[in-house]
Predict the structure of Oxidoreductase YncB.
Amino acid sequence: MGMPGFTAYMGLLDIGQPKAGDTVVVAAATGPVGATVGQIAKLNGCKVVGVAGGEEKCRHAVEVLGFDVCLDHKADDFAQQLTQVCDNGIDVYFENVGGKVFDAVMPLLNTGARIPVCGLISQYNATSLPEGPDRMSALVATLLIKRIKMQGFIIFDDYGHRYDEFATQMGQWLAQGKMQYKEHLVQGMDNTVDAFIGLLEGKNFGKLVIQLNDLD
């Protein structure tokens, strides 16, 4: 019901505009945003392909969150696996990671695909441009030739006035048992730094929450 869920809801539905039968790909699939994106996409009749780090997270995405498939981005043949499971291309890619995940997604994008952009996890610690070939011309050519919509957004700046709409719908889905969520609970202020470092290293599983006091 907070910022991550709101981000997933508006980014997917307003920018991504999923239609029944579309293939939706979302990275960081077991994080609070990605997990919600995938579940909303399934409620809209889409094929949902998640990307996560590790077998446990991928299994959770399929068995608990209801994704059709989830791929481990750490696999050496990740790009090939993505090509195989997205045999009809990709209609919506919810971008929150960047890096090699986007490199694998880009050639699979269908004409008219939509890409909501809410983050670039892989680049948050970067102090310079990534090494390797300049991908900008390939990206711009793809956007042009395939008429792709790629739009960034800041959730409360752009959609704060629509929070009530989100809260009403999400509240209904939760009451109906249609949305699953997972929290990674860490106890105590003393563990805050380690928890934050673990978040950046991908060690958290679900929404990271720091509990500062005992609950009665």
Remarks:
- The mean pLDDT is 89.
- The first strand starts at residue 23 and ends at 27.
